[in-house]
Amino acid sequence: MKKSKIIALSSCSLPVVLAAVFFIFTGVRRADFNKLTSAEPVVFEKNKNDELLKPLPYTLPDLGIQIGAEAAILIDVSNGCVIWEKNADQVIPPASMTKLFAMYVVEQEVAAGRLHYSDIIPLHPECWACNMPPHSSLMFLGKGQIVTLEELLLGLSICSGNDAAYALAYAVCGSMEEFVNRMNEVAWNKGLTHTHFVESSGYSEQNTTTAREMAAFCRLYILEHPDSLRRFHSLPSFTYPKEKNMAPGDHYGPQDWTNGLPEHITMGITQENTNPLLGRLAGCDGLKTGYIDESGYNLALTVEREGTRFLSVTMKGQGRNAREGQAGRVTDGTAIMETAFGTFRDYMLDDIADSYFIKVYGSKTKALNLVTAFDEKTICVPFITGSSLAENLSNVKVTVTMPDYLQGQINAGSEYGKIEITLGNYLLETIPLVADRNTEQASWITCLADSIIH
């Protein structure tokens, strides 16, 4: 009887005994589940969301935007969501919106320290105003003038100077051909397959893009060089040349231009920013106009209000002359932006953690993190609940769904939970939660021990 009792006790206690032996000899404690060691390599890299534009993750009724331009698009700059579009893939010459690519290339050089805003830029004959094609937009560069890189960028952004575009091309690359190659490289690297340039001013109808691709690029430009809006694109006017810009021996003052533009330009000319919505549409601080006969009246427009920034591109705007074309830009841009700000606001996802600790049983790795599969900082929230946009935003709900624990072999990047952002009956966004590392199945004795402690 005594022997059988001992056997019975041993049988009932075998898992406990084995677990005790396991813990004694391995030193694994329950507390070990509550920490991650730096020695455990994170093998999952978040999706960097390289796509510059993406569809809204929910569907709304038609916004009812009516414009005269043939092609257009409206995006949320913070997340790249396309809110509205019209013939956005029609291939059209960008005209002087081309200059944004030129400015981007120059800004990249400044950011890399290879150029500085204060650098004095030599002016090759190819960039003198007198040598530009007829009817060109100009900042009025002349022979021997003393001009800085920053002044050229101002002449490019405010006056849309074709002469400034040529001067910058020679300053950065030594030739127009090499500079255009840089611009095309930017487009190619970002997957802008319908965007191509043959020169940097936008004068040529052989330059091509679409409203969608131009909007994608403008978002890239704003995100990477946000100070350009304040420094260049939002300024209302620009006067050039000033007395400090005079070539040695030149005298600042009125000139006789009855026989055309001279090589030496010595009189200051003040030009208003070509963007007609600056100072007219609340929050407008950029970005760039463009016109040639083949493109109609184009406008890349950006507006920021209360932390939300929208960007629109309109192309093939109508108008029999510049006055009508500018009026069309104002009407179309206002209609698009007022609809956008009357319908949407950005919701900052400040309450969402980057990672969520979770225990793993039956695994050689005792814990891991569930991380968001992609970085999302803002959600474009439609005005569909409450009596105001503020009340509407306060009704946004964030729900995190994940298991209490994981078990066994886990694959990095596999989804094990999710974050849902909702507003009323609308699911605004779903962000998967994925494992940040691989784990291997543990030995049978570890699995047995884990089955006891959880």
Secondary structure elements and their pairing?
Elements: H1 2-26, E1 54-55, E2 71-76, E3 81-86, H2 98-111, E4 120-121, E5 147-148, H3 149-157, H4 162-173, H5 176-189, H6 211-224, H7 227-233, E6 237-240, E7 269-272, E8 284-292, E9 296-305, E10 308-317, H8 322-343, E11 344-348, E12 355-361, E13 367-372, E14 378-382, H9 389-394, E15 397-401, E16 405-407, E17 415-423, E18 426-435, H10 444-453
Parallel strand pairs: 1-3, 12-16
Antiparallel strand pairs: 2-3, 2-10, 4-5, 6-7, 8-9, 9-10, 11-14, 12-13, 13-18, 15-17, 17-18
Key attributes of the depicted protein:
elongated, alpha+beta, Peptidoglycan synthesis regulatory factor (PBP3), Domain 2, 454 residues, six-stranded mixed β-sheet, 18 strands, Beta-lactamase, disordered N terminus
Could you explain the architecture of this structure?
The chain has 454 residues and is of the alpha+beta class. Among the domains are: 28-47 and 350-453, Peptidoglycan synthesis regulatory factor (PBP3), Domain 2 (Sandwich); 93-209 and 237-272, Beta-lactamase, CATH 3.40.710.10. Helix content is 29%, strand content 23%. The protein has 10 helices and 18 strands. Strands 1-3-2-10-9-8 form a 6-stranded mixed sheet, with helices on both faces. A 6-stranded mixed sheet has the order 15-17-18-13-12-16. Strands 4-5 form a two-stranded antiparallel ribbon. α3 (149-157) packs antiparallel against α4 (162-173) and α4 crosses α5. It is elongated. The relative contact order is 0.15. Residues 1-12 and 21-31 have low confidence and may be disordered.
